[in-house]
Give the backbone structure.
Amino acid sequence: MRERAYRFRFYPTPSQENLLRRTMGCVRLVYNKALTVRTEGWYEKQERIGYSQTSSLLTEWKKQEDLDFLSEVSCVPLQQCLRHLQTAFTNFWAKRAKYPNFKKKRNGGSAEFTKSAFKWREGKLFLAKCKESLNIVWSRFLPQDSQPSTVTIKLDPSGRWFVSILVKDSSIKPLPKTGKKIGIDVGVTSLITSSNGEKVANPKQFNRLYKKLKRKQKALSRKTKGSNNRYQACLEVAKVYAQIKDARTDFLHKLTTKLVRENDLIAIEDLAIRNIVRNHKLARAISDASWGEFNRQPEYKCEWYGKELIKIDRYFPSSKRCGNCGHIVEKLPLNIREWECPKCGTNHDRDINASQNILAAGQAVSVCGASVRPEESKSRKATALKQKPKS
């Protein structure tokens, strides 16, 4: 059985909302104080302060007169936020993420409850220090006889409440084999181009609601800082962003699920998206296309359903390589969408050729574990040697 999180929207009572908002405020305070302590410890003493030290500090903070309200909420979310901070620092030291940021009230908030801080009775969820169960909108059913192991409450910037329930799901089983293989090249105009010649248009959710967002942001800019009108205007802007995010996520889930169901092998590029979006001319279009989320979803879906996902090295010249003879052109600007191979004369659609090369490389990796990086590295070195002036 695999662990799976089911997310639902819920509507708290006034007393529940008051408690949850206080809990998230305490979580945010503890997280920020612990981050400050760890930062100061490093810059002043070059000392790495870990989870155990911050946990001891939390006990001391609760004893302080000005912080005694920390004892009014469940202690579990406070401990969990310290564990999350430890994970953030672990990723930072391993160079997988940037330095942790301080939590902000305007971003909403979240609180994680483990088994000791909630009760699950007859399909109803009771959180610690809450007498009433949460009014959850059950948009789908949880697996039969499932027992939640973790519950996460989240308030998004638009004011919506969500609960994420982590359970062991026995319904996740491998899908039947179809015998199909596909290579995928991502783009901006066409979100994806497959090796079989199919192109899926980019819905451009941000552009669709750009005028509405611009109008809401313009109204926000006129409001006085700190006023209730400005708070309401902030919610209106956040609601538009929520519409964009929901539409984008829904489209990507349907698309990736369809690809995983129909194909036994999926080959995609492992792009350095963080570096690509530094190009200010393409940053908004690439962010709207959500390449990172498109690459993330097939990973766990292929693992769930017994399919194979292969990520091709980002330096593999999928667009510049001729799929017919293997010749690699030196330059291929983005504005050139079709090109002719100077060696064999084959005319190529840039995206279809790239996706077919990605599939070929993916099959090579799948069959014999071949690497596509060394050949490109040699070609890059050879080009560098040619361009080096003779002494």
